[in-house]
Every structure is written in C-alpha cells, then in structure tokens.
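#struct-pred

JT: dropping the chains for the assembly here, can someone run the whole complex?
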Amino acid sequence: MARLANDAHVVPWTARLHAPSASALYVHLPFCVRKCAYCDFASWETPRGDEAMSRYVDALCSQLKEARDAGLLDACETAYVGGGTPTMLGAADLARLVRTMRDVAPYLRELTCEANPDSLDDEVLRTLAEAGVTRLSIGVQSLQDGELAALGRLHDAQRAEQRVAAAVASGLDVSLDLMCATPLQTDANWADTLRRAIDLGVGHISVYPLQIEEGTPLAVRLGDDDPDWNDPAVQAHRMEMAEELLTAAGLARYEVASYARPGKACRHNQAYWTGLPYLGLGTGASSMLTAEGYEELRRRWGRLPRRPDDAARVRLTISSARTEVAQHGDLASLDADVEFLTESQAAAEDLMLAMRMARGADPALLLHAQHALGTDAVDEAIAWCLERKLASWQGERLAPTHEGWLLGNELYGALWDLADGEPTSAQTTE
Ligand code: SF4
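RK: done, full complex below.
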C-alpha cells in the first residue's frame, strides 16, 4: 500500500487490543411507559413508580462496584445510560445510579443519559446535572404531531420543543435523535423538523431511517406491504436532505448518522467505532473486551466460558431477563452469550467500523490490518472499494465516500469478509 510507505510515525493500533480496563461503560435500563409502534429494543412496558425499577438499579449499582474491583473501569473515560427510557425512573433512582457510576469510574470525561420528552421534567433535569451527567440524548424523532402519533410516541411536538429548550438552558450538552422515512412524513415536513431542531440550538443531532422490524406492531399492521414511505430511495433522499440542512447550519457529519458542532461529537459512541473496549451492564447490554479484560471478569464470574487460546477479543451480551438482573445483585449469577474473535476477525471488525466515521481508517489501523489480515488481501479489498467509489484516500486515511455511506452494507461487507471465518459462540455454564 504505497500510501503507508513511511510508517515510522504511526502509533501501533495493538496498544488498544490489550488494555485490561474498558474505555467506555454502558448501562441499560429496560423500562418504558408504553412501547412505540416500531420498537424492538430490549425494553418493556412498566408502570411509573414500579418498585421493580429501584431493585434493578440496586443490582446495577452492586455490579458496577464489582466491575470496579475487577479493575475493569480503571481507565474508563465515557459512560452512557441508555434504554428503554432512563428518565422514567425518576430523580431518586437516577441520581443513585449516576453517582455510583461517577464513583466507580473516576476518570469520566463524558456521561450521557438518554431521555424522552414526556419524562424529562425539571426535577429530573436538575438531578441529572447535579449527579454528574454531562450530556443528554433526547429521543425526539419528529417535530410533527401526526408523525409522532403514527410512531406511537408519547409526546407531541410542543412538549419536545419545550423540554429540549429546558435541557439546552440547563447548560448540559444536548443531542437529539430524529427519524426519517416514517409514516406520514413528506419532504416538506422533514425539512421543517430539521430546521426547528437546528433552531433549538443543540450541539448534536443523530438521524436514522426507520427500520421496520419483524414482530413490532408496525410490522404486523403492514403485513406483507413494503410501504412507499420507507422505500430505500426515500430513506437515501431524506438522509441527503438532513446532510444538506445540518451541515449548512454548522453541524458536521462525523459518522454515518451523527452530526455535531465543533467539540460536540459523542466521545462514547466514537469508542464503539474505534476498537476501544467497553463494558455493558443490564439486561441485553453488550460488552467488547480484550482478552486481558475478559480474564479479569472471568475471575469473578466463573460461569463464563473458557477463552480459546487464539481469541484476541470477546463480545459478551447479558441474556438474563430484567427480573433476574434485579433479583441477583452479583455478576456471577448472570447469564450471557459470548463470542470469541480471533486477531484477524477483530482487525476486520475495526476496519469495518472505522468506515462508519467520516475520518475513516487511519494509518495505524491500516498497518495493523495488513499485519493481521495479510497485506495483499487488505490491498485487494481497498482496491475493490476504491474502484466502486465506496471509499477514497484522504491523505493517509481511507475514508468512506458519500456513495459508501449510502451503500454501507457493500462497504462494510467487503471489509468484514477479510476475516478468517466467523466468531465462535458460547454461553455461561450452569
Ligand atoms: S421509548 Fe425508545 S425504547 Fe421505549 S419503546 Fe419507544 S423506541 Fe423503544
């Protein structure tokens, strides 16, 4: 690869493949007031004030302390409370959880909490800021009442605008999630939603096309129909509209679905796309650990399967139901699905994830990929992507093109195919 002929300045990528501590921490709260029509996330309808949520937070707090004692949070820099609807837990439980996260991970530079407009009241907002949250990610989805009703959201546009304005006024960093290619959406009202979101003065906006997931009320309602409003061409056009309006307003696209003002990109999500290890706690939460981190965890969680000698990376997803998580406070009693990745699979994964980001793959990653996957194979895959205009060289970086983002599956597939087979699966033992 001529681009990397002089590699003396490149810091080895391998440093991040052996860190025993996670760089990022995710905590999952699987509770919602009502399921949205399109949602297949790990979340369940729960009455407001249900004590099961407090018990679940108790369990998470003790698991967080165990993770700290195992050294898994020594170098953790970002954290994220996701769901579900974290803000429906109320001020007291959220404060307890956030303070515990601050205690067990003392070097956090960013702590994001997801929020929904219907439950982000003034007390919750103030409590989150006081407890140590630095950033809110608010699930707005649309600023059109008809679209919101069709999606089954609990809020209307006025409530969303009020609560986002209050969040911005609180001084926290604020991000909005918006959704395109949804029922009743037109080009005109999508543009209106984008303009009003920009006018709210947030530093970050994420934009996703609606995916119709099997088994959801929306999919059942549609049956075998492929609705025009969700056609791939409509999705691509609305994503292009978002790019045009958001970039013109000063929010740069730094990832396929993410736009930020200078200094406001989400550090936590970037950890996922740059091969940094992360720990996930709560039902359905996923971790990505180095071999060293996994061994530390396994010392306390003896039911985790033995790591094959050639596994350089471990993906782990907690499969215990929310009631089981709440019932047993300790890590050792949780069930998990585990996947072991070889060094070559980890390198292909890192290459693929890097291409979600505007800056693409840097020289350190490309050199590591050549070492782990073979220079000829990597060069051939890159040539294939360049030929199809899915990627281009930006100096020494290989970056996705506009076409590459639109045809993401082709681009990511070509890079993942460099891996030697599929990861090995295993589960916790009885
Ligand atoms: S609020 Fe979010 S997690 Fe809850 S049902 Fe709606 S989309 Fe799903």
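JT: nice. The longest strand covers residues 173-180. The mean pLDDT is 95.
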